[in-house]
């Protein structure tokens, strides 16, 4: 006749040992799992600070701004003596240089140099090809004044859609706020250009 008491005794001993281990090591085990969960949550939070829309916007907007700065420099270094137009060009230059400095700082912080370099050669969102920019630099007097206003109006008008895309789809709040300000400022500047020209160049 088999003795069934021994296996039962062994099972009870095993259960008791497991209970002791959980009692002693339980807090450490729970802490380890909690730490892993917190690390995962922190990583997810960090990843969510900026997204692909933010990276794309920085890559496209920095060279777009630089072209507007270059156009403003041409006007400011010229013989155009219209104080209102010169003031507008100076404000465009100052504002977009300041924004580019901040956007480049974010790009460095995020380590997206390759993305920035890839976008730096794009001619898009109202930008002008090199040959047209070369023609622009050769203008003088009233021809330059008129070309600056018409081309800058076009430049502003065609980038606003992309800027709205950052407002709607970006994840990095400081960049989204900057994009909102860009839309407000450039819309107002377009209004100034229309007033100076006496018409809307896009109509």
From TrEMBL:
Domain of life: Bacteria
Residue span(s) of domain DUF305: 54-197
InterPro entries for this protein: DUF305_CopM-like, Ferritin-like
Protein's UniProt name: DUF305 domain-containing protein
């Amino acid at each position: 006749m088999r003795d069934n008491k021994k296996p039962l005794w062994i099972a009870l001993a095993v259960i008791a040992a497991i209970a002791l281990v959980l009692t002693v090591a339980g807090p450490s085990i729970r802490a380890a799992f909690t730490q892993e969960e917190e690390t995962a949550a922190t990583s997810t939070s960090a990843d969510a600070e900026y997204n692909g829309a933010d990276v794309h916007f920085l890559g496209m907007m920095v060279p777009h701004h630089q072209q507007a700065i270059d156009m403003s420099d041409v006007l400011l270094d010229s013989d155009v003596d219209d104080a209102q137009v010169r003031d507008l060009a100076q404000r465009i230059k100052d504002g977009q240089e300041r924004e580019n400095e901040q956007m480049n700082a974010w790009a460095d912080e995020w380590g997206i140099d390759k993305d920035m370099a890839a976008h730096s050669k794009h001619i898009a969102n109202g930008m002008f090809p090199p040959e047209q920019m070369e023609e622009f630099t050769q203008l003088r007097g009233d021809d330059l004044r008129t070309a600056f206003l018409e081309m800058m109006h076009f430049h502003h008008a065609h980038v606003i859609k992309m800027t709205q895309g950052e407002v709607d789809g970006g994840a990095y709040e400081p960049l989204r706020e900057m994009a909102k300000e860009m839309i407000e400022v450039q819309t107002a500047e377009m209004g100034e250009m229309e007033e100076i020209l006496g018409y809307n160049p896009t109509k």
